[in-house]
Write a structure and sequence with these properties.
heterodimer, A: 286 residues, MetI-like fold, 2 domains, B: mainly alpha, 14 helices
């Protein structure tokens, strides 16, 4: 590559250096712009209420304090919102990973009547915007008497088209010979699923779980419609609610926002490789 | 003995034949239950005078659709959605492509940079909106503090109808840029290095490489990003609802917000369902147009 570049370009060392500096400068400006809201959030959440309402605002906290993080739990039912968010994210994630992996196996490894028709129906409904279905979905859920219940929140996330699609793509790459060998040894289809498919699918399952978890952790429109009572509010509902209601709580809002964002940020930092894989699988191949 | 064997074999055949259906059943049922079935119910609702208060739901034909199209607020929401889409999609795509191209070169710390660019994507939108509300605060916010310290005057970013939509668009670009960047990055890494080498031997400059190799080969990724971004921005809701609530003076009222308000504020479910189908038809039409105009088959080989 270096040798080739020497043929292609007759640029002076200064031009190359200037180019590199320009690249770094653009990327750095972009990175500052992308990261600044987080930086501001972190700095603000360590400021006291007195400092937060100062005009002009301070950038770095003068007397950094942890009291906001404690007060969040004392003055608003933050622990409950947090627990609600965990329950309504973890359950749909676990269930949808299982249902999508099973469906992926069904569509990838068997030939059966109606397979392609069902699969294409699922894929084509990926085009249907969720907001287009919320009104009738609400009517359905209210007929099932699930409005303002946890089940009503969870029930819409128990499967996903992109999950089924991703698992199918992945399982298609597992050789049929492995399955046939297990069949000759007398394994049932479910046992093949449990002991061969699931262990081999670990990376895809991890990716799917991450996507699902981040989606449910941030879910907004459906909880907004289905939840009426404060007891069931999740973080994405509760934090904007308090931010709109109690202006004088801004120090707590900042601390609460930071704590609400942190789990997904940390999860992402440790698993970013899977994220990128997942995006390229679901994004590029259809 | 023979009998036992055939029975065993039959049991085996049965579980073998039933297995695929058992595997796809839960995932398919749960999925269709929240997509196809509500779609059908919604279609039915859109032709009936369906309110929550009245027990009868009389057939009204196209009256709901006529009411939707006759409502000036619907057209305001339509206009705002189009403005939002036009403001977000092109700029976000260009910035994402730029970031991807630069972060695909061999620079130091590129993994860290990629992470930074991606962080907003995993941040819950409504909480991102809360963070930005604080940044946009007219007196205490970071943005006005920065503008004032370099000699400009501050603005009421979310309260002034003239700039409210712009403020929403900026947050939207920030929040979705990283996702598009990753798709472009993946596509860039799929372009064989030999193409560039061959072109450079032929004396192509850096700009030529981008114009004649990178751009055409990124076409499928670009089309994918364009189509999904447009679909996504027609559905914007949470961000706007938290940042401005559709105000000031409907300046940021968008279509999904209008659907939400008609259904859950005014209880006009039939009309809201009709609006949903107008939105759906609009998305289908725009997607089809993009596909027709840009979707020529491109292969790498």
């Amino acid at each position: 590559m270096k040798g080739v570049r020497a043929v292609g370009y007759r640029r002076s060392r200064w031009a190359v250096l200037a180019g590199r500096i320009a690249v770094y400068a653009i990327i750095a400006v972009g990175a500052v712009a992308m990261a600044m809201p987080f930086v501001w959030l972190v700095l603000s959440s360590f400021k006291t209420l007195q400092e937060i309402v100062l005009f002009p605002p301070t950038f770095f906290p003068r007397n950094p304090t942890l009291s906001n993080f404690k007060q969040v739990f004392d003055r608003i039912p933050f622990a409950r919102y947090y627990a609600n968010s965990i329950v309504t994210s973890v359950i749909p994630t676990a269930v949808s990973v299982l249902t999508c992996t099973m469906a992926g196996m069904g569509f990838a490894k068997y030939r059966f009547r109606g397979r392609d028709a069902i699969f294409w129906t699922i894929l084509s409904t990926m085009m249907v915007p969720f907001p287009a279905t919320i009104v009738p979905l609400y009517v359905m859920i209210s007929r099932m008497r699930l409005v303002d219940t946890r089940l009503g929140l969870i029930i819409v996330g128990l499967s996903s088209a992109s999950g089924i699609f991703m698992m199918r793509q992945f399982i298609m790459g597992i050789p049929d010979e492995l399955l046939d060998a297990a069949r000759i040894d007398g394994a049932s289809e479910f046992r093949i699923f449990r002991q061969i498919i699931v262990p081999l699918c670990k990376p895809a399952i991890a990716t799917q779980a991450l996507f699902s978890f981040t989606n449910h952790w941030g879910a907004y429109i459906w909880p907004l419609i289905v939840v009426n009572s404060d007891e069931l509010r999740t973080l994405p509902l509760a934090i904007p609610y308090f931010s709109g209601q109690y202006y004088s709580f801004q120090n707590l809002i900042n601390a609460a926002s930071l704590m609400a964002v942190l789990p997904v940020l940390i999860l992402f930092l440790f698993t970013q490789r899977y994220f990128v894989q997942g995006i390229t699988i679901t994004g590029m191949k259809n | 003995m023979v009998n036992v064997e055939t029975r065993k074999y039959r049991a085996y055949r049965l579980q073998r034949n039933a297995a695929p259906y058992m595997f796809i059943l839960p995932g398919t049922v749960f999925y269709l239950m929240v997509t196809i079935i509500p779609m059908m119910i919604g279609f039915w609702m859109s032709f009936h005078n369906w309110t929550i208060i009245r027990p009868t739901k009389p057939w009204v034909g196209l009256a709901n659709y006529q009411k939707v199209l006759a409502n000036p607020v619907f057209w305001t929401a339509m206009k705002n959605t189009l403005v939002y889409t036009a403001g977000v999609v092109p700029f976000q795509m260009i910035l994402a492509l730029l970031a991807a191209v630069l972060l695909n070169t061999e620079i130091r710390g590129r993994t860290l940079f990629r992470l930074l660019y991606y962080l907003p994507v995993v941040t819950p939108l409504s909480i991102a909106a809360v963070i930005w509300t604080w940044i946009y605060h007219p007196n205490l916010g970071l943005l006005n503090w920065f503008l004032r310290s370099i000699g400009f005057s501050g603005r009421d970013w979310l309260g002034d109808p003239k700039v409210a939509m712009l403020s929403v668009i900026i947050v939207a670009i920030w929040s979705g840029l990283g996702y598009r960047m990753v798709i472009f990055l993946a596509a860039l890494q799929g372009i064989p290095e030999t193409y560039y080498e061959a072109a450079m031997i032929d004396g192509a400059g850096r700009f030529d490489l981008f114009r004649f190799i990178t751009m055409p080969l990124l076409r499928p990724a670009t089309l994918y990003v364009l189509i999904t971004s447009v679909i996504g921005s027609f559905q914007v809701f949470g961000l706007v609802n938290v940042l401005t609530g559709g105000g000031p003076l409907d300046a940021t009222n968008v279509l999904v917000m209008w659907i939400h308000r008609r259904a859950f504020g005014d209880y006009q479910f039939g009309e809201a369902a009709a609006t949903s189908f107008v939105l759906f038809a609009l998305i289908l039409a725009i997607t089809a147009i993009q596909w027709k105009a840009l979707g020529r088959e491109v292969t790498y080989e």
